[in-house]
Design goal:
alpha+beta, 3 helices, 8 strands
């Protein structure tokens, strides 16, 4: 029996590359039974087997995932116009993270200073999804 409890974090879904207000916080959860993404009201945006996920990490730290023919652009920090994560998302994250080890993603000095560590967070997700069976480049 696996002791892996998975990983959860609030990342930001870039629904538009031009409109920062459409960069929405989502609760991304990777468990042994699959990948799930929930919006601010905790409605399920997607649920998938990691083996069905394809994608890549861009040079700027955007994790581009394709699931069932739909593309999702996920980033580690919000745009200036983005809404904040909801209280429900923060509470669900605290519950999902209970007992699981925190991410060790720290990133380099430039990533920390200019990007708030967002690049490292998305590299960590890239590695975790690949380890779970996603076909990522």
């Amino acid at each position: 029996m696996s002791t892996d409890t998975g990983h959860a974090a609030i990342v930001h879904w870039r629904r538009s590359i031009w409109n920062g207000a459409r960069c929405e916080p989502v609760l991304l959860t990777l468990r042994p039974d699959g990948l799930q993404m929930q919006d601010r009201s905790l409605a399920t945006v997607l649920r998938a087997d990691p083996h069905s996920v394809t994608g890549r990490l861009t040079r700027l730290g955007t994790l581009l995932l394709t699931i069932d023919g739909r593309r999702y652009a996920l980033v580690g920090r919000p745009a200036s116009l983005s809404p904040a994560p909801s209280t429900d998302q923060q509470r669900a994250l605290a519950n999902a993270s209970h007992g699981s080890p925190p991410s060790a993603a720290a990133g380099g000095a430039v990533d920390q200073v200019f990007n708030g560590g967002a690049g490292a967070r998305m590299r960590d997700w890239h590695a975790r999804l690949a380890a779970a069976g996603a076909r990522l480049t």
